[in-house]
Amino acid sequence: MALVYENYHYGTFMGSEEKDPLGQQNIGLSFAHPVDGAVIRVLESASIKTMFNDAIKVAVSAQHGVLLSTGIAIDHMNFPELYKVFDECCETLGIPMPYALVTNDLPGINAFATGTDEFSFVAISNFVPKLMPLGEQKFIIAHECGHIALGHVVYHTATSLLSSSASIVPVLGPLVANTVIFPLNAWSRCSEITADRAGLICCGDLKTAQSALLRIVGGFTDIGQVDIDRYIEQSEATMKTQGIGKYAELLHSHPMIAKRIKALELFANSEMYYRVKGWTGENLLTDDELNKRVEQLIKIVG
């Protein structure tokens, strides 16, 4: 049973019987990367979800207890503009408002969502409201809310914990990595594509979404001086020359930023995106075409 504290309803939309604003039981599954959607459907079985939730409750408390205690909660009195953005994103995605906070414990321009079904929260670096335009803030916030809408947070936390244990256990570490972490990272990269789509659906502007992603790698530089198409071309060309080095992405839970920017462009020109937004258009990518092109874009081996 979900818990309610003050203005926040803790829990995820997965499994809820209420409808989102677009009239679907789960808007997230309507735009999810196909691998992400399929995995989440399997993992959402009661026995698997209960096992993950029970294992992660203690870990979330141990890892983030201090952050939760020291961060500044976002509400109608603290960071009211951010609170309004959260409210709009949650309404669009059809989820209850999660607990959210601004913290100095996250480096650079960053944010994350974590937790369990009973308690999911979003943490935002204090640089986000200071350095990002409001539209880019909305993309970042909607991305994290997208993880909650799809029920990603439990499994992302599990991936992080397994990665940590593999790095500190000399004998079992490689075995864990080969049998568990690689597949979880492969799913996680797909889930980031889905969350980026949530960000675009909420912020409503492709250039804004791409600028927000570029700012993650650009940091405090003036990204207005960066040509996004040129950046993608240079990234693709460089990776082709890296030989075995390009396979290092197998260890990453996120696709490279250039791939995410290009994947968003494909989604923005698809029937899927227009369908979710309730728009009509011509010469759009079909669902099959979108899935094939995104899969080709983000695959590492083959």
Topology of this protein?
Elements: E1 4-5, E2 8-9, H1 27-31, H2 34-43, H3 46-70, E3 72-73, H4 80-93, E4 99-103, E5 111-115, E6 120-125, H5 127-131, H6 134-150, H7 153-168, H8 172-203, H9 206-218, H10 228-240, H11 257-268, H12 271-277, H13 287-298
Helix pairs in contact: 2-8, 3-7, 4-6, 4-8, 6-8, 6-9, 7-8, 8-11, 9-11, 10-11, 11-13
Overview of the structural elements:
Helix content is 60%, strand content 7%. The protein is α+β, with helices and mostly antiparallel strands and 302 residues long. The strands form two sheets. A four-stranded mixed sheet has the order 3-4-6-5, sandwiched between helices. Strands 1-2 form a two-stranded antiparallel sheet. Helix 2 (34-43) packs across helix 8 and helix 6 crosses helix 8. The radius of gyration is 19 Å and the shape is globular. The model is unreliable at 1-25 (pLDDT under 50).
- Structural class by sheet pairing and helices: alpha+beta
Low-confidence blocks of residues: 1-25
Mean pLDDT: 83
> Going across the major beta sheet, what is the strand order?
3-4-6-5
